[in-house]
Amino acid sequence: QKEVEQDPGPLSVPEGAIVSLNCTYSNSAFQYFMWYRQYSRKGPELLMYTYSSGNKEDGRFTAQVDKSSKYISLFIRDSQPSDSATYLCAMSGRGNQFYFGTGTSLTVIP
Amino acid sequence: EAQVTQNPRYLITVTGKKLTVTCSQNMNHEYMSWYRQDPGLGLRQIYYSMNVEVTDKGDVPEGYKVSRKEKRNFPLILESPSPNQTSLYFCASSPRTGASNQPQHFGDGTRLSIL
Predict the structure, then answer these.
(1) Distance between CA atoms of B53 and B50, rounded to whole angstroms?
(2) What are phi and psi of B39, to 5 degrees?
């Protein structure tokens, strides 16, 4: 079983829609959770970083962590064509390694 | 500008010919790491380094070497490359704050093709 599971999509939505991206994980020791956005031919860039359970909001982006269900989500409100990219979840525990999902490809149609 | 710089960005080479991919960061970060990204497998950690002269294996270290002689540099070495090492490689760095794992800054990647 993979440490982190993420639906690869692709996901296609109209401009202005609310987008929901999700990851599940198996290691209960994970306590640091991240979402990255990756454009074609570029490295991942950090969108959101949360510690333990709860919600965090930054502009149009909201990250949720449910440690009891081992489930994390990223919501994008009022999606824009510039949000079209691959979204990667990542997590880490007390150790020094990071584990990434395979990424979800998102296209926002004008 | 804060950045992680990888070189080369693209490389086509042949089996068995030793190669080095360089990585340099200008943010004085303690933690540096190498990943490979493959379709359907996502980003997988190859090696990481907590600080100068401290390196550890990630999930897929076979066939790779690293060194950390200076804080800013973390080269990835393929002593005898094979076609299954054809991939997109990323270097990343982050500060270490106590026991927390801070999110990483990534370079723009090196696309490596081994024939």
Answers:
(1) 9
(2) -55, 130
